[in-house]
Design the sequence.
């Protein structure tokens, strides 16, 4: 077990070191202007600067607040609608075409309307996160409800469990492994669009941090921002992965042969 | 009669083709009786069980329990499935509580009843475990405890031991017989295992396929607990073999 962790850490260190090495070599070759490709050391300095003067944490806080409001709203709406639509197959067959048309549209495409309807400030970014998270959760909930093993319904019926208890006691938990999978997908997509949303509409947050750095021609800060966004996204992803694995374990779904 | 099946048929139409899965079954079952429905796959034994459970309705004929026509499932008739039907997200205790939740019983009392039945099937040490942490035999014990906890009149068992290995199977047969004798339920038990039927049943209903129907009914007048190797046991087993024509009736032919 400890050897495993050691090996994994080694791989991460090696892979990141190689990347930084190539980057440093590219900088040393002198063929790229420092403003187009800042050196690793410069970016590290930029990162330290952002941490020291506290701007990073202000932007982190703002972004995470928006993120969780939008994401939690998407969870609530996606799961509730998904349960109802997954259960009412005939209604879903009417709504599905609309969903399938809207789903591939980038949330950013809605931006003009979002600004007209919700103004500026925090709301546009929250709405974009909501749209990004909503569809994966809705679709995985609908398919989760559709895939509930018929035997659970039979057993519940036999034991006299009626709606709405059936929905909350049987269908929701039975569909939950698939829903958790949707929550994971939604988290990734919502995080991507958080930054995009903040780049077009906001005066604060991690996306704004990057736009602001660009406007002041600080490419080192742009890259520093990118690294922070990646790291925080990774952290969130790991957290939800933990939740997913926990649920799978509890539900007795094993994932042998995968790591 | 307690359970009365009168001319019950079940037909299915699939892509315009009509198949008869059960044809004009007549069967009378007394209260407290242990009945085995025995036959190969496709003989309609599960269909018949589903009709009694109320999961399905006959296309003609009727199924009556206690004089009333069965139209839907009821807590008085609990079905136990081959793959147990346990809820994987619930602990053993919460699984057994499931059937008590639709009755007006407060939480404490519910837990107490559930624990009592978990004790009865000998799983008290595992009440906090989840189904995936238990062996097949243990999972089926949980399903038994869950069924008995709601105190049904009738237990319907659909090849409940079909997924277990031979040794576990036999100890579960002992267990089911013990629970039946202690709780005085009427049990209808679907199986394709001849020895299992002879060991458990008061009467064996022999069914044959295409179309599914009852061929004959064999009484098993052996005292309990039955000895699987006793000569009376083997005699009845041989009779069942003969019913399915699995036993050559006249050996002398081979020597001519």
Sequence:
């Amino acid at each position: 077990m400890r050897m495993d962790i050691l090996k994994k850490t080694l791989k991460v260190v090696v892979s990141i070191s190689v990347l930084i090495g190539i980057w440093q070599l590219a900088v040393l070759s002198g063929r790229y202007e420092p403003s187009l490709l800042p050196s690793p050391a410069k970016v590290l300095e930029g990162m330290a600067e952002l941490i020291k003067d506290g701007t990073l944490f202000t932007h982190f806080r703002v972004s995470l607040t928006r993120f969780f409001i939008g994401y939690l709203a998407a969870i609530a709406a996606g799961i509730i609608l998904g349960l109802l639509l997954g259960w009412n197959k005939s209604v879903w067959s009417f709504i599905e075409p609309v969903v399938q048309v809207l789903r591939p549209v980038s949330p950013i495409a809605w931006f003009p309307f979002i600004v007209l309807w919700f103004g500026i400030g925090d709301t546009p970014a929250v709405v974009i996160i909501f749209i990004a998270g909503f569809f994966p959760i809705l679709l995985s909930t609908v398919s989760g409800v559709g895939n509930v093993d018929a035997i659970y319904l039979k057993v519940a019926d036999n034991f006299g469990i009626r709606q709405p208890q059936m929905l909350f006691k049987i269908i929701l938990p039975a569909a939950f492994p698939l829903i958790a999978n949707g929550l994971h997908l939604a988290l990734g997509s919502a995080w991507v669009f958080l930054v995009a949303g903040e780049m077009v509409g906001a005066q604060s947050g991690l996306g704004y941090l990057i736009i602001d750095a660009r406007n002041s021609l600080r490419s080192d800060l742009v890259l520093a921002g990118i690294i922070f966004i990646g790291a925080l996204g990774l952290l969130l992803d790991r957290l939800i992965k933990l939740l997913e694995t926990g649920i799978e374990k509890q539900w007795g779904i094993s994932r042998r042969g995968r790591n | 009669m307690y359970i009365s099946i009168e001319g019950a048929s079940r037909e299915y139409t699939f892509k315009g083709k009509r198949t008869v899965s059960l044809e004009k079954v007549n069967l009378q079952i007394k209260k407290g009786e242990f009945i085995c429905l025995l036959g190969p796959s496709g003989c309609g034994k599960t269909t018949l069980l589903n009709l009694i459970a109320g999961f399905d309705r006959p296309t003609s004929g009727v199924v009556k329990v206690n004089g009333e026509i069965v139209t839907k499932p009821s807590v008085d008739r609990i079905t136990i499935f081959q793959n147990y039907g346990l809820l994987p997200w619930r602990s053993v205790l919460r699984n057994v509580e499931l059937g008590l939740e639709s009755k007006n019983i407060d939480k404490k009392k519910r837990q107490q009843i559930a624990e009592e039945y978990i004790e009865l099937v000998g799983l008290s040490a595992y009440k906090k475990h989840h189904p995936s942490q238990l062996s097949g035999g243990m999972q089926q014990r949980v399903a038994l405890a869950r069924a008995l906890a709601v105190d049904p009149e009738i237990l319907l068992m659909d090849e409940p031991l079909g997924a277990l290995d031979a040794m576990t199977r036999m100890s579960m047969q002992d267990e089911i017989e013990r629970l039946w004798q202690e709780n005085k339920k009427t049990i209808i038990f679907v199986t394709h295992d001849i020895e299992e039927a002879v060991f458990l049943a008061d009467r064996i209903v022999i069914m044959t396929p295409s179309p599914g129907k009852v061929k004959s009914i064999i009484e098993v007048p052996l005292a309990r607990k039955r000895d699987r190797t006793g000569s009376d046991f083997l005699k009845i087993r041989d009779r069942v073999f003969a019913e399915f024509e699995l036993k050559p009736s006249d050996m002398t032919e081979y020597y001519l």
